[in-house]
Amino acid sequence: MSQGSDPASKAGNSSGNKKDASQSQADSKVPDVPAPVSKPGTSVKDASKKDAEPPAFEKGIIDKVVNEFGDKVNVLYIKPLRMKIAIGPADIVAIALYLRDTLGFDHAESVAGTDYPKDNQIEVIYHLGSYGVPGLEGQIMSLTTRTSRDESTLPSLIHIFRSVEYHERETFEMLGVFFEGHPRNDRFLLPEDWADIPPLRKEFRIKGR
Amino acid sequence: MNRRLAERPESKIDDTVNMGMQVLKEYTADDDRLMTLSVGPQHPGSGHFRFTIKVDGDYIVYCDPDPGYVHRGEEKMCEYRNFIQNIPHLERPVIHDSANITYSYSLAVEELAGIEVPRRGQFIRALTSELDRQVYTLYWLAIYGIFLGHSTMFMWPTGDRELFIDLLDALTGARVTHAFNIPGGVRNDIPEGFKEKALRHIAYYEKRLKEYEDIFYNNPLFLQRTEGVGVLTREDAVKLGVTGSVLRASGVSFDVRKAEPYDIYNEIDFKAQYMRSGDCYARAYVPFLDMKESCHIMRQLLDKMPSSGEVRAKLQPNPKGPPGEAYRRVESGRGALGYYIVSDGTPRPYRVKISVGSFRNMLALPHLLVGAKLADMPSIYWALNYWPVEADR
Amino acid sequence: MVLPLIFIVLFYAPLPLANGEVLTPFLFLSMVVDPTRTLPIIQFFMQTDLFRVAVFPGFTYAALIAAVTIFVERKFLAKMQLRVGPLYAGKIEGIFQLIADGLKLVSKEIIVPSGADKPIFWAAPIAFVATAAAVTALIPVAPGWVVADLDVGLIAVFAVFGFFPLIALLFSWASNSKYPFIGGLRALHQLIAFEIPFILSALSVVILAGTLNLTGIAEAQQPYWYILFLPISAFVFYISSLAEVERVPFDLPEAESEIVAGWLTETSGMIYGLIQLGTYIKLYALSAIFVILFLGGWAGPQIFPQELGPPGEKTPLVQMLTLEGIYDPIDFNAGFWFTLKTFGVIMLMLLPRGISPRIRIDILLHTGWYKLIVLAFINIFIALALVYGGVLGPEGVLNSG
């Protein structure tokens, strides 16, 4: 990459500078690797600015989802190889089924819960990937839903994606989100004598810090 | 009854079975014929991990993994330190594969903060990643040997690991847990004479790999104990969401370095190694093939590295980026190691979620152990490339 | 008060007769420092049964070989595994490692699990060592040098070996714990399964030798060693010995990664030490029997001279140095070759530990009950053919007589 190895241009490279999507640079570096999707070459620049054009392949996938679910789904960002959609707890099972059966995302790579006390909500995000469909390698579809902090229950996706079993259980014990339909909302990583609030909540402070 | 247990149906994922507790349908969980064994942390065959099994004679009918013995709350600790301070404690989940677990973190932080890594830094980062992959895989292979009772296969890889630990010591200053990757590149440049030393070590190591094949992989007793044992079909592997060598041993050719090449991996010519049989032999052999492939990668990296240049981007003391989130992953010794980082504009991350290969592969453990013989338990368990400390984070 | 007691013991306590005299400790001590009278004492002592049991073909000899085996095993395996083995205990290559280990084991606390069956828990390791030593009592090291020269020596060996599975089972049951229980059952299965090929392979030797007496078997191999005619039997015997002594690849009763330490889980301190000693004495015993059955016992070229030192009349000091009266070239030669061959076989038994992983119980039982029995029978038929064809045996062509 022409800019990266030139020491003289390092001076302008302090953190916080945003650059445009480096797709053209990425494509020019990979002449011999067939690229059905655009791959991020080096460190990925933020491509979710309003005036940047979202990548075409990912846009196609998102368009199908939006066509199917219309208003219920909210597209948060479309970046090269990463897409994020948000939906309410009532429809999450339906959209998960759609993603698995029609689009081909067949496993969940991880399930994370984030506590947003300012909105009084907990966001649970499923990162879905695909092993079976050839064009979808490397794509991660992030499916998120939110639930309130006081009554945090969500439908479990375990009957659709078997791979979320242990992740949802960990989210239950770390954040207190009850997954309906999961056979075992139980303590997993924490010690047996844990008597405190779920540790990943923001009001749980590590002692001494 | 025993003969029926030995023949397993095609795919055992039945959505109507009580998935939280895997018990074979002929038994109830508190049957009198069953003996409960706790393959716990104080067991030479389990590492820092406990799983409870119930056995009927020699057959396992129930398995319940119980991780958390070394849970330290890595994800919570990340919220209290800024991006650079997180590196030393994030290495600890896998101390000898530390370059990969911090590599993924650095990639995610660079995406959040918009940092660009110079080219030479990317090459050195990739080189450290490959070296650590060798170190981890050899350690894993050594433990696999001793689990099967093969003490020579414990001593040889542990000794040959020193070749790479030596290189890493010269490169980073520490044998394990190097704290060498930071968001923005690597800390220091490579020393003089490193390339010749590395090529010598790799040449000797490739000769040693042939000896491993002779004494271990072609050993009739080893083949008897691992061929056909613990078969994970392709559909099950995909449904369970396993990753890394376990996935590739079941016929899915998925390697993160090929699927979404990060840094300069799209300039390196290599193949993702996979096998189709899905038994313990394949799961033991795929890392071996990976090691051979990794030697090719290291040679190419040493060749193509630019001869001069910066190795890291100039950073502010407390790098931070605009509010946003990033999910980046890296192919580590156990599989895809992903970081989901949410930033709220401050120098400290708002949420860090680490998605490790071991935690995902743990799901295959009850699936494979139920119906297997007790004597196969160490073989199946360790072939899942499970590192207990990483799964607990 | 103490002094008179010492004097009484020293001057009046009777020791066994020596040369028709009644010995007292005083006379014994005075004889030992007088060279002209030392040798007859030692010669007399060597002919007693106590010497046979305790020193030469008996316990001390076996224990010494066991101790050397332990050390050699660690060094030998270390060289195979590209490392050095014990290095620091003792100036040269860790030669005192064994003493250090022994001292460590003696000084450790013996933890008896709660609920364990105490009489059996304490008695079983002692019984283990005693049984292993009992086997060594039957082994002839040189012609005439055997503790118990039975006419049915070989069957006595197998009878004593049949006691080991029982000890393993009793000890594992007395440990009152799950992992020893599984290990004990596995030990039972394994040891019993391999008794049969063990006995059958020895049977073919008996057919050729015509006698069950171990000394007789060793002497019947004067022209040719039986391993030339019965290689398959030797192989079956070798595999069965590995299984009987629970060495890799047959160390499932002690499979470390699966069942912690098997039936040895609850042993600690000196109990563990006793069991290790018993195991290695058993290893020596099996190697010795292998040598007697297949490798000709003590047969070997005579390399010891007729007399050590110059012939003719000797001064007492020279007499003592040349071991006159004790030195018998044939016996020394026999002992030397026997020890050498036993050591070779022991090294052969130590070898698989560096090469193989552990076998699984169902493969082991399949091998022991099917394949080895078939192989043993093949060699029985070969032996019968040789005898009835007049090649070997009492009227055979290839015989010393």
Can you walk me through this structure?
By secondary structure, chain A is an alpha/beta fold. Chain A has helices at 23-29, 56-69, 92-103, 165-175, and strands at 74-79, 82-86, 107-116, 121-129, 140-148, 153-155, 178-180. Chain A is 21% helix and 22% strand. In chain A, a hairpin with a 2-residue loop joins β1 (74-79) and β2. The longest helix of chain A has 14 residues, at 56-69. Chain A starts with 22 loop residues before the first helix and ends in a 29-residue tail after the last strand. Mean pLDDT of chain A is 74; it is low at 1-51. Chain B has 393 residues and is of the alpha+beta class. Chain B contains 16 helices and nine strands. Chain B has helices spanning 2-6, 74-78, 86-91, 98-113, 119-147, 152-172, 194-217, 220-226, 234-240, 245-249, 256-259, 280-304, 357-361, 364-369, 377-383, 388-392; strands at 22-23, 35-39, 50-56, 59-66, 181-182, 185-186, 324-331, 336-343, 349-355. A four-stranded antiparallel β-sheet of chain B has the order 1-4-3-2. A three-stranded antiparallel β-sheet of chain B has the order 7-8-9. A two-stranded antiparallel ribbon of chain B has the order 5-6. Chain B is globular and about 65 Å long. Mean pLDDT of chain B is 85; it is low at 1-21. With 401 residues, chain C is mostly helical. Chain C has helices at residues 2-12, 25-33, 35-47, 49-55, 59-80, 97-106, 118-136, 153-161, 164-174, 178-209, 214-219, 231-244, 256-259, 270-294, 316-321, 329-350, 361-388; strands at 15-18, 21-23. The longest helix of chain C has 32 residues, at 178-209. Chain C starts with a helix and ends in a 13-residue tail after the last helix. The chains are: A alpha/beta (209), B alpha+beta (393), C mainly alpha (401).
Write the layout of secondary structure elements.
The complex is a heterotrimer of chains A (209), B (393) and C (401).
Chain A: H1 23-29, H2 56-69, E1 74-79, E2 82-86, H3 92-103, E3 107-116, E4 121-129, E5 140-148, E6 153-155, H4 165-175, E7 178-180
Chain B: H1 2-6, E1 22-23, E2 35-39, E3 50-56, E4 59-66, H2 74-78, H3 86-91, H4 98-113, H5 119-147, H6 152-172, E5 181-182, E6 185-186, H7 194-217, H8 220-226, H9 234-240, H10 245-249, H11 256-259, H12 280-304, E7 324-331, E8 336-343, E9 349-355, H13 357-361, H14 364-369, H15 377-383, H16 388-392
Antiparallel strand pairs in B: 1-4, 2-3, 3-4, 5-6, 7-8, 8-9
Chain C: H1 2-12, E1 15-18, E2 21-23, H2 25-33, H3 35-47, H4 49-55, H5 59-80, H6 97-106, H7 118-136, H8 153-161, H9 164-174, H10 178-209, H11 214-219, H12 231-244, H13 256-259, H14 270-294, H15 316-321, H16 329-350, H17 361-388
Antiparallel strand pairs in C: 1-2
Helix pairs in contact in C: 2-3, 5-14, 5-16, 7-8, 7-9, 7-14, 9-10, 10-12, 10-17, 12-14, 12-17, 14-16
